[in-house]
């Protein structure tokens, strides 16, 4: 089975099936001002996808509405568009995945070992209140899977509640795009909320790197979060290490 095919039940061969990763991407194409485009920060997907592909994991993309995920224009320009991004866009099969993402209702959470929320400012609008994504996240978590995010992807974890009604992030260590990075990126006045502050309001134990735009990954049991685009590869590597070492346990 290729890395881009739909997960299927493992045959009764006694051979362990490959791990399966569900990538969550946005459908939003612009800020509140339609003249200011945004979308998926593509390296946050490609860096993680490369890590998981090297492990032989099966991977699938899902978005709140299904279909196309727009791309953040800044992520496609030098020097931010690195080799991983260029290779993805040059690969017709992989590039096609960006226009054919699944809807949440087409996904069976039991098929996946981990969910990975990508970022880009777009997700600030369509991730936090999407109940279908929250359901997938809760089910993957509660069957012992890994829940992960990078950069603004942690907005997808803001309002996810577990079966007992508690917020997933309450009392857990997390990181994600910091307010200081919003200010330095020049978009603090255009974002709909302060995601760092919103995460703290939900009882999460937010952490950030001493220097902005440097690699920072926080793992609290099966919850793995990365601070910014620079952290995507390291975040995926931490997820892979959990899965590879079979450290995933529903009692964490």
UniProtKB/TrEMBL annotation:
<dbReference type="InterPro" id="IPR029062">
    <property type="entry name" value="Class_I_gatase-like"/>
</dbReference>
<protein>
    <recommendedName>
        <fullName>D-lactate dehydratase</fullName>
        <ecNumber>4.2.1.130</ecNumber>
    </recommendedName>
</protein>
<comment type="similarity">
    <text>Belongs to the peptidase C56 family. HSP31-like subfamily.</text>
</comment>
<dbReference type="InterPro" id="IPR050325">
    <property type="entry name" value="Prot/Nucl_acid_deglycase"/>
</dbReference>
<dbReference type="Pfam" id="PF01965">
    <property type="entry name" value="DJ-1_PfpI"/>
</dbReference>
<dbReference type="GO" id="GO:0019243">
    <property type="term" value="P:methylglyoxal catabolic process to D-lactate via S-lactoyl-glutathione"/>
</dbReference>
<dbReference type="GO" id="GO:0019172">
    <property type="term" value="F:glyoxalase III activity"/>
</dbReference>
<feature type="domain" description="DJ-1/PfpI">
    <location>
        <begin position="44"/>
        <end position="238"/>
    </location>
</feature>
<dbReference type="InterPro" id="IPR002818">
    <property type="entry name" value="DJ-1/PfpI"/>
</dbReference>
<keyword id="KW-0346">Stress response</keyword>
<dbReference type="GO" id="GO:0005737">
    <property type="term" value="C:cytoplasm"/>
</dbReference>
<keyword id="KW-0456">Lyase</keyword>
